[in-house]
Design goal:
- By secondary structure, this protein is an alpha/beta fold.
- It folds into five domains: 2-106, name from scop, CATH 3.40.1690; 110-144; 152-332, P-loop containing nucleotide triphosphate hydrolases (Rossmann fold), CATH 3.40.50; 338-408, Helicase, Ruva Protein, domain 3 (Orthogonal Bundle); 419-600, Peptidase M41 (Methane Monooxygenase Hydroxylase, Chain G, domain 1), CATH 1.20.58.760.
- It has helices at residues 2-7, 18-26, 79-89, 109-133, 171-185, 188-191, 211-221, 241-255, 284-296, 319-322, 338-348, 360-365, 372-388, 396-408, 419-438, 472-482, 484-493, 501-517, 546-573, 575-588, 593-600; strands at 14-15, 31-37, 41-46, 72-75, 100-104, 152-154, 200-204, 226-230, 259-264, 305-311, 329-332, 444-449, 459-463, 590-591.
- The strands form three sheets. Strands 6-8-9-10-7-11 form a six-stranded mixed sheet. Strands 1-4-3-2-5 form a five-stranded mixed sheet, covered by helices on one side.
- α8 (241-255) runs parallel beside α9 (284-296), α15 crosses α17 (484-493) and α15 (419-438) crosses α20 (575-588).
């Protein structure tokens, strides 16, 4: 547009009419020449000493006016008409005074840009797309780089953010992974006895147990090139790209052998073949998996490259991927025990400014079933809570609040609840507390609250016991404790509400698990329909007959109904304590363990956790 302004001499020139041209310019013989452009526009050039005295048209003031710029312009309808008018206006002129008329064709840059610009935008878009597809590839032309792998490479001597010191707990898993690192550092120690270095190590465990952290520690400690990639990065928009990237990844790793390849979330490409897309003729993930199987253990040599892989869904992986020779070692990372949680707390508490009253043993005891990621989240939330309260140190109470927030959600004290609803919630939570207090196989009760958190209007907080197996009696007691809230509403108000939905859902699932999976029902017998392979999930029908389904439904209904009547009888027997606890909840909203012991008496079944100071 700037160039168009500069190059067009008529821009900013004043436009006149034929009358003004004839009466003021031609009649006074001030016009030197007229240039007709594209048969549409007449550019009028005046003589050097020609001045216009008329006030009808101002002198043009063009900032960009150059030499040779017309003084005036005029739009003409037709060239012939214009010539006839001009001839009649010069009838009495001598040959020397006749105006020089010329014709010219001029191309506008704006008109050229109007059709060039769309093509330019399309070309720019395709170049951008090709570069996106070829991002991270090598070579001059990105068009051919979309088949290249894009791993993150940690070379020897590169400092990693994580080391084995940061991996707390997981002693057995850490020992096995450290042995893999030792294979690469000192291979002679093992090969001189005829041993072969394992080709692959599969890290399996629930989310947040430290699989990726373990791989980061290996990258920091190995002292060899470390290639890390996610399983989803192999498969993109083109067919065959996944297999090409697998080949390219192993080619790079072999060039820098000894080296380690880490594939995070390998279930993205390692799912069982023929199950995911059984109705498709060709599946991109399947071809990627086939190439991965070939690279791990095929005809080609694969010496000096160890493959680490992580997944939390080993049940969906292909059996050919898990066999020895491909992944020789399977390392299971379980949820940490109490002692391991204590170590993990020690790692995450290092950067925090702690108060002297922080008890790591109590924190580890109060977080059963928490993974390493959950513990890291508790420590961070506690620091945020302390900072919000303008404290200089993180105290024990901040960790307790952080734990409650992570489990139950944020407190919503501003949520408006009617007095009647609040009374129902108080008796509901008191029912849970009283039932669990007098049932010997239920976890220790820590506190009861009727402050809304998340979606719940109240909560009873327990200290779960870490069990490896659960007996039938323990199952039944847990079901009774879960039904305590509904039973309390039934006893006190002689009607029930919708507030027990979550409890009923949990109880029903637990009852079906007891009957159909664990074989704990006498009528059904020791039969289990549990499918560890996950194949039954893809079946259209159930693995048992209609008659057996009726039996299972009948036994589950009887089991839950019996437990409900048992709970009602228990709460009726201790109705006085139930009412007292509900009234205390209405008054204080949160009831700690000392108040529970005053109302319900000392619980002698198991040692309770000491209350926080």
């Amino acid at each position: 547009m700037w160039f168009s302004v500069i190059s067009n001499p008529a821009v900013g020139t004043g436009e006149i009419s034929w009358t003004f041209l004839q009466d003021s310019l031609i009649a006074d013989r001030k016009v030197e020449k007229i240039l007709v452009v594209n048969k549409e526009l007449a550019e009028i050039y005046l003589k050097k000493n020609g001045k216009v005295s008329s006030e009808k048209v101002e002198e043009p003031k063009n900032l960009f006016q150059l030499s040779g710029t017309p003084d005036y312009v005029m739009t003409i309808g037709s060239v012939e008409t214009f010539e006839n008018k001009l001839q009649r206006a010069q009838e009495n002129f001598s040959s020397e005074d006749l105006i020089d008329v010329r014709y010219a064709k001029r191309t506008s840059w704006l008109s050229i840009l109007s059709w060039l610009l769309p093509f330019g935008i399309i070309i720019f878009f395709w170049i951008y797309m090709l570069r996106r597809m070829g991002r991270g590839g090598t070579g001059a032309n990105p068009l051919f780089n979309f088949g290249k792998s894009t791993p993150k490479i940690s070379e020897k001597g590169t400092k990693s953010s994580a080391t084995f010191k940061d991996v707390a707990g997981l002693k057995e898993a850490k020992t096995e992974v450290m042995e893999v690192v030792d294979f690469l550092k000192n291979p002679e120690t093992y090969t001189k006895l005829g041993a072969k270095i394992p080709k692959g190590v599969m890290l399996v465990g629930p989310p947040g147990t430290g699989k990726t952290l373990m791989a980061k520690a290996v990258a920091g400690e190995a002292g060899v090139p470390f290639f890390s990639m996610s399983g989803s990065e192999f498969v993109e928009m083109f067919v065959g790209v996944g297999a090409s990237r697998v080949r390219d990844l192993f080619k790079k790793a072999k060039e820098k052998a000894p080296s380690i390849i880490f594939i995070d979330e390998i279930d993205a490409v390692g799912r069982s073949r023929g199950k995911v897309n059984a109705f498709q003729a060709n599946d991109e993930r399947e071809s990627t998996l086939n190439q991965l199987l070939t690279e791990l253990d095929g005809f080609g040599p694969n010496t000096g490259v160890i493959v680490l892989a992580a997944t939390n869904r080993p049940d969906v992986l292909d059996k050919a991927l898990l066999r020895p020779g491909r992944f020789d070692r399977h390392i299971y990372l379980e949820l940490p025990t109490k002692e391991e949680r204590k170590e993990i707390f020690g790692v995450h508490l290092r950067p925090l400014k702690l108060s002297k009253n922080v008890d790591v043993n109590l924190l580890a005891k109060l977080s059963p079933g928490f993974s390493g990621a959950d513990i890291a989240n508790i420590c961070n939330e506690a620091a945020l809570i302390a900072a919000r309260k303008k404290k200089k140190e993180v105290e024990q109470i901040d960790f307790m609040e952080a734990r409650d927030r992570i489990i139950g959600g944020m407190e919503r004290k501003s949520k408006i609840i009617s007095p009647k609803e609040k009374e129902i919630v108080a008796h509901h939570e008191a029912g849970h507390a009283v039932a669990s207090w007098y049932l010997k196989n239920v976890d220790a009760l820590v506190k009861v609250s009727i402050i809304p958190r998340g979606k719940s209007l109240g909560a009873a907080w327990y200290l779960p016991e870490e069990r490896q197996i659960v007996t039938k009696t323990q199952f039944l007691d847990q079901i009774c404790a879960s039904l305590g809230g509904r039973a309390a509403e039934d006893i006190i108000f002689d009607e029930i509400s919708s507030g027990a939905l979550d409890d009923l859902e949990k109880v029903t699932k637990q009852a079906y698990t007891m009957v159909a999976y664990y074989g704990l029902d006498k009528e059904i017998g020791p039969i289990s329909y549990y499918d560890s392979t996950g194949q039954n999930e893809r079946m259209f029908g159930k693995p048992y007959s209609e008659k057996m389904a009726e039996m299972i439904d009948k036994e589950v209904q009887e089991l839950v109904t019996t437990a409900y009547e048992r709970t009602k009888n228990l709460l009726t027997e201790h109705k006085e304590q139930l009412v007292k606890l509900a009234q205390l909840l209405l008054a204080k909203e949160v009831v700690e363990i000392e108040d529970l012991e005053q109302i319900l008496g000392k619980r002698e079944i198991e040692e309770l956790v000491e209350n926080k100071e």
